[in-house]
Structure formats: structure tokens, C-alpha cells
Write a structure and sequence with these properties.
The protein has 222 residues and is mostly helical. It has a single domain, classed as Tetracycline Repressor, domain 2 (Orthogonal Bundle), CATH 1.10.357.10. The protein is 63% helix and 0% strand. The chain starts with a helix and ends with a helix. The relative contact order is 0.12.
């Protein structure tokens, strides 16, 4: 299993990048340092010029991998959603009971993120904070439909589809499994955002939203 995980790669649509960043040491450095920088300074303040200075490379070399910083953010978001899907598969593949699978899915999308040693160039906790604070910027653009058609959001949609399939196993007659699946994922993000910025309007102050999401599921499906 350790050997299998050491060779694991998260699949990202090649429409997002010009050159696969995992194909070179520089590409991995671009991903590694961009995560730390965006986490520290925010997406608006982050630039390829600043990234180049940190990694000791010309700004032009970064543009050989990504057309612009929006595409880089889209890559980071796609990697994160693919990674969550991988974690969900690992957590639920041996489970037979659909409700236990759904409980695991809720845990995966809502629990605090820790470092995953299988991916040495990714700081998962920092990337999680980026997703909480910046994910919406990856799709609230005029190009969202074109990028979706090109597969830019395939990782996100695969995760939603996997969860919606589990929901349909739990409650085959429930008419809104896709809507519920996407609501669970987005609610988990939003509640984490509120915990970090607007404590007065969330009941998840001292803990993550796992219990809240479980309550929604229990009262909706069971």
C-alpha cells in the first residue's frame, strides 16, 4: 500500500496548464511555493513576479506552466477536490453500509485537514485554507462555462457525483441527491469560512461543521 500511495497522482485536466507542473522540479516548486504565498498574502496580492522572486526563477518561466494566475488557482482547486475524492475512496472502499459511507464522506469534506505524506510538494492544510477563502474566485468569472466545457471543474464534479451516488444508496427515493451533495460540500466550506471570519453567525465556533452536516443528513434522509 505504501508503494502504491507513493506513486499516486491526482488527475488534473490538461486544459488548465500549459505544461504539467508535476513533470519537473521547477513545476513542483511553483505549486509548493504558490500555495504558501497565496495562503499568506491572499490571491489578489499574489503575482507571478513575486512567486518568481521567491523560487529564484524568471517570471517568464512560470508562464510556461500557466497562462495566468487564475489558471494556477484553478489548478490548485482542482488538485484539492481530486485529493478529497481520493481520501473519500480510501475511507469508504471497504464499507458495505451506505450510511457509514455517507458518514465518511461528511467527515472527509468537513474535518480539519492535516498533512498527507503521500504528496510531499503540497501543504494540504495551507491549500485547505486557500480553498475556504479563495475557491469561489476560480469559477465566479465570465469564462466559467468555457472552462467547464474544457474540463476545468472535472475534479469538483467527480467528488460531488461520488457523494450524490452514496446519497442515492442511502435514500433511493430522495429526489434531490445531486443538490444535496453539492450543498453539503459548499456548506462545509462556508461554515469553515464563518468560523474564521464571522463567528457571530455560525454555531460551529468551537468545532468544524461535521455534526451540523450529519444533522442535516439525518433529518433529510432518515
Amino acid at each position: 500500500m505504501d508503494e502504491l500511495l507513493s506513486n499516486l497522482r491526482i488527475t488534473i485536466s490538461d486544459s488548465i496548464f500549459l505544461k504539467d507542473p508535476e513533470s519537473s522540479v521547477l513545476g513542483k516548486k511553483i505549486i509548493e511555493e504558490s500555495i504558501l504565498m497565496i495562503d499568506a498574502m491572499g490571491f489578489e496580492t499574489f503575482t507571478f513576479k513575486k512567486l518568481g522572486a521567491v523560487i529564484g526563477s524568471n517570471e517568464s518561466s512560470i508562464y510556461r506552466y500557466f497562462e495566468n494566475k487564475h489558471k494556477l488557482l484553478l489548478y490548485l482547486c482542482s488538485w484539492y477536490w481530486g485529493w478529497l475524492e481520493y481520501r473519500l475512496v480510501l475511507a469508504s472502499y471497504s464499507l458495505k453500509d451506505p450510511k457509514e459511507k455517507l458518514d465518511q464522506a461528511i467527515a472527509v469534506i468537513s474535518q480539519e485537514v492535516t498533512v498527507d505524506s503521500a504528496f510531499t510538494f503540497i501543504n494540504e492544510p495551507a491549500l485547505n485554507r486557500i480553498i475556504i477563502n479563495e475557491n469561489a474566485k476560480s469559477f465566479l468569472t465570465k469564462d466559467v462555462d468555457a472552462e467547464n466545457k474544457e474540463g476545468g471543474f472535472a475534479s469538483y464534479k467527480r467528488l460531488i457525483s461520488r457523494i450524490h451516488s452514496i446519497i442515492s444508496e442511502v435514500a433511493p427515493d430522495y429526489p434531490y441527491p445531486k443538490s444535496l451533495a453539492s450543498t453539503l460540500v459548499e456548506t462545509a466550506l462556508h461554515q469553515h469560512f464563518l468560523r474564521g471570519h464571522f463567528l457571530s453567525i455560525t454555531d460551529c465556533q468551537s468545532q468544524g461543521p461535521q455534526s451540523f452536516l450529519t444533522d442535516i443528513i439525518n433529518k433529510t434522509l432518515l
